[in-house]
Amino acid sequence: MARGIYISATTSSSGKSLISLGLADLLHRHADRIGFFRPITEAADVADDPIVRMVASAFELPASRARAGLTRTASRELIVSGQTEEIYSRSVEVFESIAAECDIVIVEGTDLTGHDFAVEFDLNARLANHLGCHVVGVVNAHGLTVDEAVDAIDVARSSFYDEKVSLLSMIVNRANAAEATELQSKARPGLHNRKVYVIPEIEEIVNPTVGEITSALGAQLIAGTPMLDREVKHVLVAAMNVGYFLERLVDESFIITPADRSDILTTAIATSRTPTFPTTSGVLLTGPRPVEDTVLPLLAEAPFPVFTSPDDTYTSAHKVWEVRGELSSGQPRKIAAALGQWYKSIDEAELLERMHLPAPTTMTPLRFLHGLIERARTAQRRIVLPEGEDVRILEAAEIIHRRGICELVILGDLKEVRELSNQHGFDLSGIEIIDPAKSEYLEDFAQEYTKLRAHKGITIEQARERMVERSYFGTMMVHKGLVDGMVSGAAHTTANTIRPSLEFIKTRPGVKIVSSVFLMLLADRVLVYGDCAVNPEPNAEQLADIAVASAQTAQQFGVEPRVAMLSYSTGTSGSGGAVDDVRQATELVRELVPDLAVDGPIQYDAAVDASIGASKLPGSSVAGQATVFIFPDLNTGNNTYKAVQQSAGAVAVGPILQGLNKAVNDLSRGCTVEDIVNTVAITAIQAQES
After folding, report:
1. N or C: which end of the chain has fewer CB within 10 A?
2. At what angle do helices 442-452 and 460-468 cross, to 10 degrees?
3. How confident is the model at residue 82 (pLDDT cuts 50, 70, 90)?
4. Mean per-residue pLDDT for 268-293?
5. Residues in domain Phosphate acetyl/butaryl transferase (predicted)?
6. CA-CA distance, 356 to 582, in Å (whole number)?
7. Matching CATH topology for 210-324 and 507-659?
8. Alpha-carbon distance values, 311 to 61, 179, 217, 247 (Å)
9. SS3 for 629-681, per residue?
10. Cα–Cα distance measured from residue 259 to residue 246, given in angstroms and rounded to the nearest whole number
């Protein structure tokens, strides 16, 4: 049966769901199959637990591997009737059904919200023992001094020892950020001399979103933009005149005001549209009076959501102040902030070593992508994003920054970028924003470009004009070493991204052309397809160049390269110009890289199916087990990758550019926010080795 890790809080409001999320992210990359179980849920229905939903969604767990056991009401009835053993029995039954499909199961204990903490603590300890789980104890340091938190760790640890649980780790959560380092140094290790981890309070999680507040109040959206994931950093009751209102307004304020205060409403809209003024995350109009008809058209254009509540201002304010942000809401920005802080606070290698996990035998898409993020986080490179006026870029930038994946520079008109981020509630603090037209680097870049392109007759005036273009400015930042890589293409063509790189970054020594690959993430493995995005009709030499570069890219991302040079015939069965080019290219690859497993011409079915490969190309080290597929032309490659993506449900990551001296990558103009995050991670990894 799979092993289990039981996350047990020692007080209420410990934020243990952050620990569940962090452990799930960590274990998902180091075990084939993980499961998640909550023995007792606060939800009214076991099928509606928000933490289970969040973890299942984040890690694509089927319902059979992410479940809750009993509702709190049902468990309380069993305890009162003297049937506590029934709780243990039912929990073991559900745990075992999950464990039958998993290598490791994360179990999140109860919230300790009952009247008798001691009884509930004991219940969690006994559940952990009945399930055969190691225990991660979570201490809530919110509101405690350093010395009080240190004592709380010792008391909690001693209590776990008294219950004879297998204590894997003690984690302190919600610590004062300014005192986290001191607390870490003063926290005493336990019997096994294991370090205590300290995670500081994360404002982005504690601060509620507009959606969390309005859902708790049952407020009705009547106007504005329905951006419910905006973070609320400040609650402002606006019952004063406009002058005092402006004095108290700060960024991401949630404004509570009577419905007839047209002056406050118009001022809030005006300030949100002015970059030098604080932004508004949302407005709640209170009381029974309707909004004035003359104001409604203006509210319809508000760059924030506007809600109404029949409660008076005083009652509404008290309800709002009682709402606390929850990680279980599943907001991507909250999850990004949580995982970013988790990896800053936890020694991954040390914690994994305690668990002695077996090596995974398969590579799922989610595990591969999570592995990319972790490698990029370790690399900590600096990447420039030239398309700062694209909403997807700004949203991805916020997620990347919160998760600590890499450092970022965004290019764009400062006013436009700030207006766009304010309108959508993105927090870009900590990310450098540069306007190329007003940058201190502009003249130096123009001089450098003039020198590099002197053989083309480029004048300094032409160079200045060219350097104002974002893709050129960003590429020059890469060339000059101010950043380690660039990701562009969300709003521009591939040619716009590649052209500056070809002009002055150039290709690596020995590389003849720039090419691309897609990483095709199938259910249990990763394949590499090239070239599906750049070169329309490569000749034999170019095909060989693409094959060698693709094999190197595969290796860079943990795929053992076995290269299939694809054609419509296998071996010596066919002839003609196209087949002959592939045959010649195969021989060139063997000359260039004698140790590389490569074969061709070979048909796709012979490259992937062992029995067909053995029949059509017996004795081949590639047939039936290829991992890198080189298509004879762009038409074939592009159609094939899209067919596999759509028909087989594969995740296509790319295109990844290869062959350049520096890390530069192109985005599809239809890219999603997730595509941007993944491409930035890939670029950071490439930059580590370029």
Report:
1. N
2. 120
3. confident
4. 85
5. 368-684
6. 47
7. no
8. 41, 40, 9, 26
9. EECCCHHHHHHHHHHHHHHCCCEEEEEEEECECCEEEECCCCCCHHHHHHHHH
10. 18
Q: To which CATH superfamily is domain 210-324 assigned?
A: HprK N-terminal domain-like (3.40.1390.20)
Distances, alpha carbon 434 to alpha carbons 192, 410, 490, 596, 688, in Å: 51, 6, 18, 44, 24
Half-sphere exposure of 479 (CA within 13 A, CB side): 22
Compute CA 437 distance to the chain's CA centroid, rounded to the nearest angstrom: 32
Would you tell me how many other CB atoms lie within 10 Å of the CB of residue 114?
16
Task: Please identify which residue in the block is written with the tokens 């890939």.
Answer: 682
pLDDT (tens digit, 9 = 90+) per residue, 92-134? 888 888 988 998 999 999 876 655 667 788 888 888 888 888 8
Residue 283: is its pLDDT beyond 50?
yes
Helix (H) or strand (E) run with residue 562 in it: strand 562-566
Distance CA 632, CA 634 (A): 7
**Residue tagged 């999603």 (tokens):** 672
535: DSSP letter: -
**Longest pairwise C-alpha distance within the chain:** 91
Please state, in angstroms and rounded to a whole number, the distance separating the CA atoms of residues 231 and 323. 13
**What's the token pair of residue 79?**
């305890």
Query: Among 328, 321, 472, 226, which Cα is nearest to 21's?
Result: 328
Q: What is the average per-residue pLDDT within 470-478?
A: 93
Q: Which amino acid is at 133?
A: C
Percent of the chain whose predicted confidence (pLDDT) is above 70: 96
Three-class SS of 154-197: HHHHHHHHHCCCEEEEEEEEEECHHHHHHHHHHCCCCCCCCCCE
Choosing among 3.40.50.10750, 3.40.50.300, 1.10.10.10, 3.40.980.10, the CATH entry for 507-659 is: 3.40.50.10750
What tokens were used for 580?
Answer: 């002959």
Q: With beta carbons less than 8 A apart as the criterion, state whether 304 and 282 touch.
A: yes
E-strand stretches of 231-385: 234-237, 253-258, 280-286, 306-309, 382-385
Instruction: Indicate the SS3 state at residue 257.
Output: strand
Exposed/middle/buried for residue 55 (C-beta within 10 Å: 0-12, 13-18, 19+): buried
Give the tokens for residue 565.
Answer: 């040079």
Choices 3.40.50.1370, 3.40.50.300, 3.40.1000.10, 1.10.10.60: CATH for 3-203+331-355: 3.40.50.300
Q: Can you point out the beta strands (E) in 61-120?
A: 66-71, 104-108
Residue 475's alpha-carbon distances to 301, 405, 436, 447, 596, in angstroms, are: 38, 21, 12, 15, 33
What residue spans define the domains of the chain? 3-203+331-355, 210-324, 369-496+664-669+677-681, 507-659
CA atoms within 13 A on the CB side of 636: 17
**Of 6, 102, 21, 7, nearest to 59 (Cα)?**
21
Return the exposure string of 165-200: e unless at least 16 CB atoms fall within 10 Å of the residue's CB, then b: bebbbbbbbbbbeebbebbbeebeebeeeeebbbbb
What integer best gives the mean pLDDT of the chain? 87
Alpha-carbon span 675 to 653, nearest angstrom: 7
φ, ψ of residue 328 in degrees (nearest 5): -65, -10
**Amino acid (1-letter code) at residue 219:** A
